[in-house]
Design a protein that fits this description.
TIM Barrel, 2 domains, 11 helices, alpha/beta, 14 strands
């Protein structure tokens, strides 16, 4: 199978150029033009003979936009088709400080979280570093922040995700600051520790969504393998290695056995994560078709107040894209079911 041209770093492009008799400096030209959004066929300053060779030797196309939904709040949800016909989603959120792009790292997902539509059809395959990057190139822009929080679990695709960081932060490419990149994980302790050891300067967000193992294992089946205290200990390790505080994401939800938003839960959460610089990002559940609801404002405020009273740094993130298929996996599911397109 042909390699994706967006997978190549400058050293690999130099090696390729030399192998076909082209000067090494062409590698930086090609890399820079690709990362600025030029597809191979439209590259200025590159000879047509070289463009032809690149097109013959690599998969060179950016993903195809199959569907775009725009929310009243400005949030944009993209459904993208990859070179092999597989589908992934991206979200663009515009804030006062610029644009945040939420990208996918896998087709499907193995984690099975009850509130997420991404894994309902199971896991299909990992994305390559270039496929992750190409999402960012296609819908990115200036003042860019990147969140790996779309379809898939980033730490389950560790090698390609870490190469993506190398590509997207390269000064000859998009040159995105590592401080403007966040990796969101369901909490794979071994992966978190390995990620910390790399010292990349990327932010870590952990989807906790519960204050104890009993509730978390119902919401997130993968949690049966990793006790919640082990997840928090890996977060402490991340801080010790990097000096960067960890953000714990916590979606407040109601619905039978999945309730996680009582004051008792808040106090339990505070006791679990206290003692190191961490921050809780509370989120009102964005409905995905599961039998779950967001709690009332009063319950959400009481939960937040209990955390603050117990010394926890906390913010309440405004849910975006609720009038479109904004949550992970929803747009892909709707297309699959024949409701769009």
């Amino acid at each position: 199978m042909k390699k994706n041209i967006y997978d190549l770093n400058i050293a690999e492009l130099k090696e390729y150029c030399v192998s076909i008799g082209e000067p090494r400096y062409r590698a930086i030209q090609i890399f820079s033009l690709l990362h600025k959004g030029h597809e191979v066929a439209s590259m200025p300053t590159i000879p047509n003979t070289l463009k032809e060779k690149l097109s013959n030797d690599f998969v060179c196309a950016l993903p195809k936009i199959l569907e775009l939904q725009t929310s009243k709040d400005g949030t944009q949800k993209y459904l993208l088709e990859l070179f092999d016909g597989e589908l992934v989603e991206c979200v663009v959120m515009t804030q006062d400080y610029g644009k945040t792009v939420c990208v996918s790292t896998q087709v499907g997902c193995k984690m099975g979280c009850v509130f997420c539509a991404s894994g309902r059809d199971g896991f299909v395959r990992n994305l390559s570093a270039g496929e992750i990057l190409s999402q960012t190139i296609l819908i990115g822009g200036n003042s860019l922040r990147i969140v790996l929080m779309g379809s898939g679990e980033p730490l389950d695709n560790f090698t390609e995700v870490t190469k993506f960081f190398e590509l997207v932060t390269c000064k000859d490419g998009m040159n995105v600051s590592s401080r403007n990149i966040s990796l969101s994980t369901v909490g794979l302790p071994e992966g978190i520790r390995a990620f910390a050891d790399l010292g990349l300067g990327v932010n870590l967000c952990i989807s906790l969504h519960a204050s104890n193992d009993d509730v978390r294992r119902k919401i997130m089946p993968m949690a049966r393998k990793f006790p919640i205290e082990e997840v928090v200990e890996s977060a402490r390790y991340f801080f010790q290695k990097t000096g960067r505080r960890v953000i714990f994401e916590y979606s407040l939800m109601e619905g039978g056995e999945f309730i996680n938003c009582s004051k008792e839960h808040a106090i339990e959460l505070a006791n679990l994560i206290k003692g190191f610089p961490a921050h809780v990002n509370l989120i009102a559940l964005n409905p995905t078709g599961a039998e779950l609801d967001a709690p009332s404002r009063e319950i959400a405020k009481a939960f937040m107040d209990a955390l603050i009273k117990n010394g926890i740094s906390v913010t309440f993130r405004k849910s975006k894209g609720q009038d479109i298929d904004g949550a992970c996996g929803m747009l892909k599911q709707r297309r699959k079911n024949g409701n769009i397109g």
